[in-house]
Specification:
about 500 residues, alpha/beta, fumarase, 4-stranded mixed beta sheet, about 35% helix, globular
Length: about 500
């Protein structure tokens, strides 16, 4: 019988979440590097370069790959012969490990978990509780898989109850374009088939814990129906031309993972969950001989990719830019921003909307007139940092506030990740504003462009407070111009035309 000591288990959980905050799995690094070499779309290649450079920087600096350090997910397989040396429950030990990881003073991770989700939505301050899945299995070890799942990709999860005769492939190919780019491709799609509704979702999530191996599967060929589905979906999804960050290109998914389970004769449950460019998971086994020992990847595992400013990149002074200036910008154009901008995301927008509804003024010192707002919830700074990793959040969540912000606050530009919906695009066109896209999955790289930061309003919202950032050469792409033209529509469409011509 194996004895697992409380401290060994807790520290292993803590170490694992720290580890995955700044180390991509090696299989992801290599797969993205290969996709970068194959990519023919300039915009997509630039985005992948930023993700790869950010990944290496995070590994070297041991700071988060993404500002969204995720909801903690833990899969446990506990051997029936294991004995625990503890007075705590397994869940209590897991949560203590998460607490230690997310409050580690040398690498503070962003606390994103809120209690009372349908009500007050109060931050727990330490990212607990985790989401824990436990199996009791034969054996005398504890098998642990941990993952940090970002909200941008989790929000794009899909589920459907198909008829038994319906095509899974058709549903996936119809659904993936509807997910937009908020899940930060290129990444991995996890698909669960069968069981019941909740079982299919669990299968999809569990499938994402496996290493990327699609190219090995392509080389040897499929040996069963699930492998046939993986290959078919991998090829067909990439043929959609969505590309990195939705900009159009060869690679949208680096792999498609599928797990299945027996189901009812009348049912065909199918779940799909994406893993983003900040893919983060680790696996270890405890056998009673102490805490887990996680081996860091070698810096040689990263491809020799650099990110450089293009010759046609436009430099923009945020302190002097005007509506007349931004009217000249076009979708897909690359910019380097310098000067001061304000931040704000979900909670700040809601509070601003409430103030306007109550006919109350904005807090003293909060003036958006002729300024840009950056949709971000940064990680707290450590040591000599101005701010921690500060990549963009999904912009579509702010769509319902866009007209209000443009009309009532006087902002002239917004910065976020992924596409905007029709409602926001119409407002941008109406007010001749602009929406710029920063690369999701390059948070540490972006933070190096921030030279000063201070909270200017709503400090009680924590990471969702309104900050003023002073930036120098912050890289962005024009995603929606003042005429309402969106690169997330034109980019993939142009790429599909190019692909069809090349195939002929």
């Amino acid at each position: 019988m194996t004895t697992i000591r409380e401290e060994d288990f807790i520290q292993s959980i803590a170490d694992a979440f720290q580890f995955i905050s700044y180390y991509h799995p090696v299989d992801y690094i290599k797969a993205l590097g290969e996709a970068y070499e194959r990519e023919e779309s300039t915009a997509a290649k630039d985005a992948m370069a930023q993700i790869l450079v950010n990944s290496r920087m995070s590994a070297q600096g041991q700071r988060p790959i993404c500002q969204d350090t995720g909801i903690a997910v833990v899969f446990l397989k506990i051997g029936m012969n294991v004995r625990w040396e503890t007075q705590r429950s397994v869940a209590e030990m897991v949560n203590e490990g998460v607490r230690r990881a997310y409050t580690h003073p040398d690498n503070v991770l962003r606390a994103s978990i809120l209690t009372d989700p349908a009500g007050a939505r109060q931050n727990t301050k330490d990212n607990t509780p985790a989401v824990i899945h436990t199996e009791i299995v034969p054996g005398d070890t504890v098998d642990v898989k941990v993952a940090a799942k970002g909200g941008g990709s989790e929000n794009k999860s899909k589920f459907v109850m198909l008829n038994p005769s319906d095509s899974i492939v058709n549903w996936v190919l119809k659904t993936v374009p509807q997910m937009g780019a908020g899940w930060c491709p290129p990444g991995i799609l996890g698909i669960g088939i069968g069981g019941t509704a909740e079982k299919a979702m669990l299968l999809a999530k569990a499938s994402l814990m496996a290493p990327i191996d699609i190219h090995q599967l392509q080389a040897r060929g499929a040996s069963n129906r699930i492998e046939e589905l993986r290959l078919e979906l991998y090829n067909e999804i990439n043929n959609l031309g969505i590309g990195a960050q939705g900009l159009g290109g060869l690679t949208t998914v680096l792999d498609v993972k599928i797990l299945d389970y027996p189901t009812h004769a009348a049912s065909l449950p199918v779940a799909m969950i994406p893993n983003c460019a900040a893919t983060r998971h680790a696996h270890f086994v405890l056998d009673g001989r102490g805490p887990a020992n996680l081996t860091p990847p070698s810096l040689d595992d990263w491809p020799q990719v650099t990110w450089e400013v293009g010759a046609l990149t436009r430099r923009v002074n945020l302190d002097t830019v005007t509506l007349e200036d931004i009217a000249q910008w076009r979708p897909g154009e690359r910019l380097l921003l310098s000067g001061k901008l304000l931040t704000g995301r979900d909670a700040a927008h809601k509070r601003i909307a409430d103030l306007f509804a109550q006919k109350r003024p904005l807090p003293k010192g909060l003036d958006f007139k002729n300024r840009f707002i950056y949709y971000v919830g940064p990680v707290d700074a450590v040591r000599d940092e101005v701010v921690g990793p500060a990549g963009p959040t999904t912009a579509t969540r702010m769509d319902k506030f866009t007209e209000m912000m443009l009309e009532k606050t006087g902002i002239i530009g917004m910065i976020g990740k992924a596409e905007r919906g029709p409602q926001a695009i119409e407002a941008i066109k109406k007010y001749q504003a602009v929406y710029l896209m920063a690369v999701g999955g390059a948070a540490y790289l972006v933070s190096k462009a921030i030279r000063a930061a201070r909270v200017v309003a709503f400090a009680d919202l924590g990471m969702e407070a309104v900050h003023e950032f002073e930036v120098q050469d912050m890289p962005v792409t024009v995603a929606v111009d003042a005429r309402g033209e969106s690169v997330h529509k034109t980019g993939p469409a142009q790429w599909r035309v190019i692909r069809m011509k090349n195939e002929k």
